[in-house]
Structures are given as structure tokens and as C-alpha cells.
Amino acid sequence: MIVDDEEDMRVLMRTVINLANNGLKVTCEAADGDEAVRMWRDSRPDVVVMDQRMPVLSGLDAAEQILGEDPTQAIVLCSAFLDEALRAKAGRLGVRACLSKDEIAQLPRTLWALAG
Amino acid sequence: MGTRGLVGANRRAPPLAVVIAVLVLGLGVTASLTTRDLLQERSRRATSTALASAEVSFIARISEAISRFEDAARSPLAGSPSAGLTLAERRGERFVIRAGGSLLPPGTDLSAVPLVSDVANQVRDGGSTRLAIAALDDEPSARAIVMIPLFGSKTPPAGTAQRRANLTEIALGDLDIARVGAETFGSIPGEVLITDGDEVLYGRGTPDDGAMSRVDASIRDRTWAFRVRPVAPPAGAVPWLLTALTLALAITVLVSASRRSRQARAAAEHAAALAEENSMMTEIGTLLQSTPDISETLPSVAVRLAEAFDLDALRVSATGPDRTQTELFVYGRPDERAGTKDVSIPLVRAGRVIGELTVRPHGDAPVGPGLKTAAGLLSAAMANARAFEEERAMVERLRGIDQLKTDFLATISHEIRTPLTSIVGFAHILTTSWDDLEIPAIRDYVSRIDRNGTALSRLLQQVLDFSRLERGKLAVVFDEFDMASIVRDILERDASLLEHHRLVVSLPETLPVRSDPTALEQIVNNLMSNAVKFSPAASCIRITLAAEGEDAVLCVEDEGPGIPPTERDRIFVRFYRGPSQAALRTRGAGIGLAVVAELVTSLHGSVRVEDSPSGGARCVIRLPRQSITKLSRGAA
Question: Which residue among A6, A82, B58, B522 has the highest number of C-beta atoms inside a 10 angstrom radius?
């Protein structure tokens, strides 16, 4: 599942995943954290790719809710502005990986590592 | 500290002045007494000399009188009244007073007169003149009577028997001692007593035999005792004058000493008051400087001032820039009682009135200079407090601006990276997977690259504007142009910006203005971007331009969530992006509306935000059409 308030980013991540053509499939997309939590409950994807800076509910707030319900859920925090504080906070919540948006080409490999 | 602290305590006068005065008085009295004694002694000596001289004169006059009586008795006119003699003729063995004399009544037998009878016999037998002392009836003094024997011959007979036989008469002359004594001693002060044996011949004053000096003198056959005692006349006015002068000098010394003592005491009290005042000023100064928050120290300071300067009431107020008074502290209540004499002291700092100290002195006590000094301290403290507040507010503002800048940098990082990531990502896909992509996908990716590139460009323009704002370089250049045409051109050129919204435009055919077309273009662009950003797709954005009087009024209205009244001023502050959710939902750096506000101000116009009828926001720009011609804020 891809969660990002920017449509361009959702399209870009979906395209990168699809072009990797290695068995990965985008099952659903959400534009904010609240929508992501609701969709996750319905779709239960293998991996959630979550932006941090979003309206209504931030990526880590949404991740906290999801991990509160299912601590085994694999979540990748994909943000344009990743600093050590954000990485540490994500690690404490149980987020499996953090990926900067300018490393978007690495996304398929990260997903496989988590899904496999 | 005690109350009424600046009023000095009374002190005892030093006794030195009294001692000096007593000494002066003592010396004066001593000098006066000595002078009196000296004067009296001199007077006594003079009197004594005069008395001695008078004695000599007295004896001489008595001797002369006796001789005169003797001469008269032996002259043919002895019986005449002019001779002053009383004659006693011989009748046998007796001597009887003849008529014509005044000393004794005619017919008086001398043998019946005590003392005289004996002297008469002695005169007869002796043949020479003798003096008889007779105490007559009712006379205080005895009389001295010259008794002169008269014989038938010019010379007395040689033998006693012959003299007894030949004596014919005895002449009696009154020496009138009282008259001679009065004439001789009358003008001389002192006591005089002339006696013959126990008989007093002349006496004056209150003779005291024991205390008088005595001189004996022989008058013919008699010895008279002269007792004199000079009586010193009063010393006169000199000792009294001296005493009075001394007393006056002593009083002068006392008064002078008292005055000097009072002056010294007043000076000491003044010095003590000054010292206490200085101490209080130091205390107040220390209090006022103990904290920049004057409200903490003002109560203590006010109470201390009221106690020290004997005030019934005191009020400290601050004067605002608009001259309004804000009460800071009140002790008592000045101005409440009618007719009270409240005194206002302006609190001045750097030539500017920053407050007022109003006091009501207790009773009619004047306001001393010390209170004005205290007012100076208050002024300084209030100015410091004000400066501290301004500094604190400035720090708060700077912190706010710093926080806004921090937020701006975080936002701008995100806002730059997001479109850049899209551009790089899609470009990478096109580069690496061109052959695997279908034409519609390629067109879509290129379109996304284009749109993000434009967004990035606009963002960079805002960063540039921010930089200009920081350097104060947002300059405007006035020119004459058609504002309607400019707005129309902007709308046509940026049509893509409004592609997801419905645009309703109301423009006049022409609207000539004298303004800055570039600044105007930036204003319209930023307002349109703002409206698009904050209103949902397919909603209506309404742009109107009209002339209103001397102004051109441009309105940009959207159907978004609107702006709460509390946010309407803040949205024009640099970097402010509205409530967090609105900021998160939209892109932007918080620069656009700040640039609009700066430019509108430079164009001498105004900008405000209000509710639109749909509930969205309506931004209203009002610019003067013609009147402003001068350049503003310098050329770019």
C-alpha cells in the first residue's frame, strides 16, 4: 500500500514498483494517514510505504495506530526530509525501514527484503 | 527605618556659651564692684581732705570771732548791738545781764547759769578771756560763749585781788558754733561731731564715736574734739553702667551662642537629614534596580517614600505614547478628597514624560527636593523597565521570526525536494524504461515533469522574493498603464494554474492607473495561487476589478474554507502558513501573501481579507489610481 498526499509521488512509486516487474503489486493507495489506517484494516497489505508529512494524520501517527493493532505489519517510512530524530522515532515505533524520496529507485529492493 | 525619618532629633545646647556668659557676667560684676570701691575710696579721701581743711577753717573762724569779740568789748561801742555782745554788770559779787544783749535775758544772774558762773569767776580772777560752754534749754547743742573781763583800766590789774576788785563787767559773745559749723562743714559729705568734753557743740549725721577719726584742737583755754567720718557718696552711674554693659555683653554672648548653637544644630540636623535621605535614595535605588520588573518593587518603594517624606497618599502612573495614564501603584488615594493640595511631579527620561508621581503631603509640609530626586530614580527605573519590556518583546519577536525561519527552511526543503523528486524520478523512468513505456504514459510522465518544474520555478521565485524582502529590495517603479489589460493578460498567461477551477472574471474595459505593472502582476499572481491552493477543485474563483472613486479595487474570491478572523492579520506575516492542517494540505513557503502586503504598501494601497458570500476568503486590494507619483523605497 502506498500512502502519500502528493499524487505525483504515488504515481512515481507505483510506476517504479511496476517497472521492477518482480512480483510486487500495489494493492491500494491513500492520500493521508487517516485514510491509510482505514484502508489498511480492509486490505491488510504485506508492506505499507508511508510518507511522513501529510494532512489529518502524519505518517508516524498512522504507523503507530497500525502497529498498535498489528505489531508485525511491515512499514517503510518514505519521506522527503529524513533526519536522525525521525529515524529514531520511527525505529522506536517499530517501523522496519526508512527511505528518502530521492532514493526512490531503491524502493523495490526494500520491499522485497521486507515482504520476503 | 523609622517613620518621619528625615526629621532630626533635638539635641542639648552645649554649656560652653552659658559658661562664657557667666564668666563675662562675673568679671563684669567684679569690675563694677571694684570700680565702685575705687570711686568711693577716692571720694572718701577727697572728703577726708575737705574735712581736715574745714577743721582748720573752723578753728580759724572761731579764733577770729573770739578776737573780734575782744576788740569789740574793749571799744567804746561795746554795749551797742552792732558789737554782738551781751554785757553782764557787776553787782556786788554777782554779775547780772544788762539790757540790750541777746544771749541771755536781761537780769539773768550769771551765777545761776551752770558752767557760765564758774567761768565768770575764772575770768574775774584770771583777767583773761575764757570760753564757757553752756547748755541752754531746748537747744540740742551747747553754746560756746566767749567771756571777756572788762576792768576799769585798759590792761587787767596785775594781782588777783586787784582784778577781783576792779572788774566791772563781763562781755559775753555767742560764737554761734552751729552756724559756723554749717558754713564750714555744710558742703562736705560726711559725719562731723565737735565736742567740748561731754558737751556737743556741733553735730551732723549720725555720729558714732567709735568709728570716727578724732582730732583735738585748743581754742583758748578749751580743748575741742573734732570727730569726722567721711561718708562716701554713691559711686554714681558708672558701676551701674558697667554692670549693665556687662549684663548686655553676657546676654549678647548668650544670644549669639544660642544662635550659633541653633545654627549648628540646624546644620547638624540638615546634614543628618541629608545623610538619611542619601541612605534612603541608595535603598530605593537598590530596590528599583533589584529587578527590571518595576511592579515587584514599586509597592515597597512607594511605602518607603510615603514614610520618608511624610506623605498621606502617593500614586505612580505611566504615560503611554498617546499620553494616556496607566496607574502602576497607589498608596492612599490622592485626588479623592476635595480641596487637597496634591502635587504632581512628571517622571521625565531623555526629555520625554514617561509617567507621573502624584503625592499628597501631610498637612502643609512642602515637597522637598529629595522627593524630586526620588522621582528621578523612579523615572530611571521606569525607563529601564520599559526598555527591558521592549527588549523582551523584541527578543520574543526575534524568537518568533527565528522559529518562522526555521519552519520556512524545513518547509522549503520539503517543498523543493517533493517536486524535484518527481522530476528526477519520472525523468529516470523515461530514461531507463523509454522502450517499455507506452505513449500515453510517456506523455503523462512528461506532463508531470513539466508541472513540477513549474511549481519548482514558482517556489524558487518565492525564495528570491523572500531574499529581496530580507534585504528590503522589493522596489516599485511607477508608470501609467491600463490595469484591466494587465489583469487580463495575467489570467490568459496563467490559465493552466486555474485549469481545475471555474474562473469568473469581471473587468472593466479599461482602468488607467499610475502604478507599478510588475508589482501588480506579482500581486495578482500570488493572490490567484493562494486562491487555487486553498480551494477545492472545480470550485469557483472570482476575480473582479473596478474603479471606486480615486482607487482601483481588485478582489480575488474563492470557495475554500475561508480564514478565521483571528488569522486575518497573521497571514500577511512572512513565513506564516496558517493553521497546521491547512499548511499540510497545501504547498507553499509562507511568502506569497507577505510579498503581496509589502508590495501593496509600497504602492500606497491597502489589503484586507474578509469572508466571501460562499464562506471562502475574499482578498481585497485597494490601490490609488493617480495621486501617488513619487518613487518608493528606492530603485531596484
Answer: B58
